[in-house]
Amino acid sequence: MVLGGLFFGFLVGVAIMAGFKYLSDLRRKARIRKIAGIYLLSQADEVDFKKLCGSSYPNHISFLTFDKVNWLNEMLVKFWPFVVEATEQRVKLALEPMLEMYRPAGISSLTLEKFHLGKVPPQIDGVRVQRLQKGQVHMDMDFKWGGDGDVVLNAGVMGTKLPIQLKKLSFFSTIRVIFQLSDEIPCISALVVAVLPNPKFQIDYKLKVIGGSTGSIPGLGDMIEDLVNSSVSDQLEWPHRIVLPVGDTPADIISELGLKLQGKLRVTVVRATNLKNMEKIGKSDPYVRLYVRVLFKKKTKVIDNNLNPEWNEVFEFDVEDTETQSLVLQVKDEDIGTDKELGITTVSLHDLKPDTEIEVTKRLFKSLDTVRVKDKGDRGSITVRLLYHPYTKEEQDIAMAIEKGELEAKEELKNAGVVGGAMDAVGGGVKMVGTGFSTVGSGGAKLVGTGVGAVGSGVVRASRMMSSGVKRLSSNHRLVNSASPTPLTGSPMRETNGLFKSKEV
C-alpha cells in the first residue's frame, strides 16, 4: 500500500510538471508569435497596410518618415554662436509684446530682463519634405533643444518688481518650415515657421524667484506655465505661424503667407450633466469658459447650486483651420478667490460640414493631458450644438479687419490700465460677421448683406489666480458673455437659409 501510494504520488507529480511545461510552452510560443507579428508590422510599408486593410484602410494613417541630417547638426554646432549673437536681441524684442498680450491679471506688468539662448545648439533628429507646391517647399523638422538657456522675467506683483528666472530650458516639437521660393538670390523670399500640434510640443524649465521663493506667491508657477503654453499655442501652433521676410519681400507675398480667417463657428452651450460637486456645503456654481484661440475666450453665465445646469447660450468664434483647430470647453465652479476646475474637454472641428448644425455630447476630464494626468472619477459631460459657416472672400476681409480692430482696442485698453492683459477680457462689446443670402434666379445665391460690428456692454472678469477678490470692469470689448448686441449700422441680422442670426439668449 505504501509503495502504491508513493508510485501514485510520483505519477501525479509528473503529470503536474508535464502540464505546467505544456502551458509554459504555449505561452512562450504565443509571445514569440506576438513579437514576430509586431516586428513584421514595424517593417510594413503603406502598400502592405493597404493590402491588409483593404477598403477599410484609414485615411489618417501617414507613412511620412524623417531623413537623418547629421550634416545639418554639424553645421549648427559651428554656427550656433553666430546665430545666438544675431538673433537674441531680435527674439527678445519679438517676445516682449507677446508677454504683455498674454500676461495674467494677477501680474501688473511683465518684461523680459534677460534672454540668453545658451551655448548648446538644438538638435534636429530628422527632416521630411511634407509636400511640394508651386513656388513653395514645405519641410517638417523633428526639433529638440535641451540647452543651457537662461531667461529672466520682471513681474510686477503687488506693487513690486519680482525677478523670475526660467533656467534649464528644453523644447521638444515637430516644426514646420515653409520656404517661399524666389527667382533672385538667395532664392528664398520668405520663411514661414510653425509648431505642429501633433505630437504636442513640450516645454520644460526650472522656475526660480531670484532672492525669494515661488511659494511666497500663491499660484505663481501655474500662472507662468499657463502664460508659456498659451502664448506658444496661440501664436506658433499650426495653423498659426510666424512669417519671416528675407530681403525686400513684396507685401502681397507676406500677406498671402499669413494666417487668414476661414469661417465662423457658432456654438450653443446647451447643458452639462452629472457634474462633480466641489463644495463641502451645497452644490457647485458652474459656468463654461470656451475658446478656439486662447486670446479670444468667452464665458457663459453662472448657474448657482446646480450639478445639471442648462445654459442654452450662443457664442461665435472665428476659425482659421478646421483641419487642426478644436473648440475647448472648460467647466468651472465659481468661488470666492480661485474658481475650481470641474472638467475640461475638446471638440475637433475636422468633421464639421458647412452650414450644417450638429449636437455633440462630450465627457469631461480633469486635464486634456490624459496620459500624464490620471483621473478615474466621473466628472460628467457637456452638450453643445455646433454650426460652421465658411467665409466668402468679402466676409473674410470684413472679419479680418474687425479682428484687427479688436486687437488694437485691447492693446489700448491694456495700455490705459483698464485691464490687466489682453486675455483678461471675458465680457464687453462684440463683433459679429453675419451673412445674408437671397435666392436669385434658379437657386442661385447672392450676398445681400454682411453684418457689421456690433458693440454691446458686458462684464470683464479678471482672472483670480492671486486669490484676490472678484474684479469687474466694463469695456467696449469683444463679447464673451452672451449679451444681446445692438448693430451700429443697418438692420439686425436675420437667419436666412440656415445661416447665422444675431439673437438674444
UniProtKB/TrEMBL annotation:
Residues of the C2 domain: 245-362
PROSITE patterns in UniProt: C2 (PS50004), SMP (PS51847)
Comp. bias (Polar residues): 480-489
Domain of life of the native organism: Eukaryota
Principal subcellular localisation of the protein: membrane
Keyword tRNA-binding listed: no
Name recorded for this polypeptide: Uncharacterized protein
Species of origin: Ceratodon purpureus (Fire moss)
Upper lineage: Eukaryota, Viridiplantae, Streptophyta, Embryophyta, Bryophyta
